[in-house]
Amino acid sequence: MPIQLIDTHPHIISSDTARYPITPLGGKRSHWSVTRPVDFEGLVASMNAAGVDKAAIVHSSTTYGYNNEYLADAIAEHLRRFAGVFSVDVTAGDAPERNRHWVQRGLSGLRLFAAGSTIKGNQGWIAEAVTFPAWACAREFGLPVAISMRQEGLPHLIEVLTHFPGVRIVIDHLLLSPIEDGPPYRASAGLFALARHPNVFMKLTTNNIRRARSGLATPETFFGQLVEAFGSSRIVWGSNFPNEEGTLAQQVEEARATLSFLPARDRENIFCGTAMALYPSLAAG
């Protein structure tokens, strides 16, 4: 029986800018959202063509900032196939109320954009005391918190883990940590050190798949070490479509081929089991 596919990192962009105005985080819109946007209907068509069964759609903060209306509207009638991962300003005084609002709208995950293509600089705000009410709210609702960040921010993440050991944290794109040095991947020591925290999950995306043969790295040694360190039940796959170039079907095939060396049980966890654990609504039906 084929392994079910759940994509935990696609994005959607509406063509209706009057209803869903463009308000990118930090004032800088991502290049991909301008040059190759895909709306909800387009994502559904791409998923059907690629054989992707379900998805946890990640709000595009580089398009809409903290306005999650399009995501919430798009999946409102499709909550058996789709989960929604929203963004709020966790440094704001009303962050807990905003969390509650989006949960009531049917969204079931929180995402923090500490560093990425359009955001550089200090990542320390994720551990500032002003954010603790939002972290506590995530704990209260059982929200997994996905974080886009880089290795330089790991000391701040450790602070969060110390204060909120019960919050499940999903590290987007494996921190884009350097792997060119090859095994034992000392340049990514910070990434692998997170394995000691049982509430930390790893999200590997198309970028990681395509970088897996950089320098002295190979998929077998890098992803093999990742599975050995974290266990496949704490690793999840996401496409990052349409951020990454190529069709969703191409990205699915790349991921399947690259991870084909893993035992079937590990691949099942990475492609669907872990996603169902993080977003239980996707386990139904």
Structure description:
By secondary structure, this protein is of the alpha/beta class. Helices cover 37% and strands 11% of the residues. The chain has twelve helices and eight strands. The protein has an eight-stranded parallel β-sheet with strand order 1-2-3-4-5-6-7-8. β4, α6 and β5 form a beta-alpha-beta unit. α2 packs across α11. The protein is globular. The protein starts with 5 loop residues before the first strand and ends in a 7-residue tail after the last helix. 47% of the residues are buried.
The major sheet is characterized as: 8 strands, parallel
Strand order of the largest sheet: 1-2-3-4-5-6-7-8
| Multimerization status | single chain
Estimated structural class: alpha/beta
Question: Roughly how many Å is the radius of gyration?
Answer: 18 Å
The sequence of SSEs as H and E is: EHHEHHEHEHEHEHEHHEHH
Number of helices: 12
Unreliably modeled segments: none
| Helical amount | 25-40%
Shape: globular
User: Would you tell me the overall average pLDDT?
Assistant: 95
Assess the beta-strand content as a share of residues.
5-15%
Count of DSSP strands: 8
Distance between the termini: 17 Å
